[in-house]
């Protein structure tokens, strides 16, 4: 399909110690207009699909984005033409090697309420790559941002509404608490099926457990890429293929619900199904 656009980052942060490993880079890009974000939030607000039970181990107040009829075709096209080509370029994969493990709208708010959530505790996502698009104007809230342990310091906060933040989901991170207002995000968990990725390792418990420590992050990033500078890590090697977790195959996109890959070694499966049609669409490459 014609008309694809690959976004160029306006800022790139590198995890100290990740050396040449591209998974250690966190990128911020301009992505969508303010009007587009407002439209997305309006459509999400009008949906009755909001819940708190889609991610068992690290729950968020969220909504499965592809289940909203008005959003589905548009998101599929943006994914095919912009998001996947951009992620693929930034991390050295082909767009066709990427697939969604989940795509959802999250709402953090400083207000009190039954389902209100101010932030998200530290975790690793199930996905090798994760992104979020800021659907709220940064002036509409205080606090917030994506706090990545290995970067230290402040949370990553994009400049403007509609900006995209991309990082490896295997870097332990949290959603910094919102102290005023509301912060809406579109979050994507993106799996990668590539000969250059060590999927059995990524499915192992070693790569999934919510253990704190930048060394663990670095070891996971090294082992995640075949020949990516990690082959000689004895610690990762001793754990790498033992967890098995064969039943947690991220290839089965319609069956990998449950947590973000936190402490739960047996996420509740098949609760977050993406419709097969959408998957077929999203697997399509832009025929470069
Ligand atoms: O709040 C953020 O910026 C991060 C969200 C996140 O990590 C997640 O939804 O898994
Ligand atoms: Fe996350």
From TrEMBL:
Name of the protein: Fe2OG dioxygenase domain-containing protein
Annotated ranges, domain Fe2OG dioxygenase: 99-192
PROSITE patterns found in the cross-reference section: FE2OG_OXY
Taxonomic lineage of the native organism: Eukaryota, Haptista, Haptophyta, Pavlovophyceae, Pavlovales
Keywords: Dioxygenase, Iron, Metal-binding, Oxidoreductase
Gene3D superfamilies (UniProt xref): q2cbj1_9rhob like domain
Record carries keyword Metal-binding: yes
A GO molecular-function descriptor: L-ascorbic acid binding
Segments for region (Disordered): 228-278
């Amino acid at each position: 399909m014609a008309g694809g656009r690959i976004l160029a980052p306006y800022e790139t942060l590198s995890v100290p110690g990740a050396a040449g490993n591209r998974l250690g880079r966190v990128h911020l890009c301009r992505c969508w207009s303010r009007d587009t974000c407002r439209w997305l939030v309006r459509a999400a607000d009008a949906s009755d699909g909001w819940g708190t039970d889609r991610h068992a181990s690290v729950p968020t107040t969220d909504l499965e984005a592809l289940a909203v009829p008005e959003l589905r075709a548009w998101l599929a096209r943006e994914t095919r033409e912009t998001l996947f080509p951009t992620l693929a370029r930034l991390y050295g994969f082909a767009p066709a090697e990427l697939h969604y493990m989940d795509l959802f709208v999250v709402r953090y708010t400083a207000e009190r309420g039954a389902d209100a959530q101010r932030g998200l505790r530290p975790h690793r996502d199930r996905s090798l790559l994760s992104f979020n698009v800021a659907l709220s104007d940064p002036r509409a809230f205080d606090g917030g941002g994506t706090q990545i342990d290995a970067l230290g310091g402040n949370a990553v906060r994009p400049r403007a509404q509609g900006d995209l933040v991309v990082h490896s989901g295997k870097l332990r991170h949290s959603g910094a608490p919102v102290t005023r207002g509301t912060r809406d995000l579109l979050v994507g968990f993106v799996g990668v099926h590539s000969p250059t990725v060590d999927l059995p390792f990524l499915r192992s418990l070693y790569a999934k457990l919510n253990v704190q420590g930048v060394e663990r992050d670095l070891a996971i990033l090294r082992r995640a890429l075949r020949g990516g500078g990690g082959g000689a890590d004895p610690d990762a090697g001793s754990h790498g293929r033992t967890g098995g977790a064969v039943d947690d195959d991220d290839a089965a996109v319609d069956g990998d619900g449950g947590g973000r890959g936190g402490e739960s070694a047996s996420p509740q499966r098949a609760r977050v199904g993406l419709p097969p049609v959408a998957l077929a669409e999203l697997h399509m490459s832009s025929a470069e």
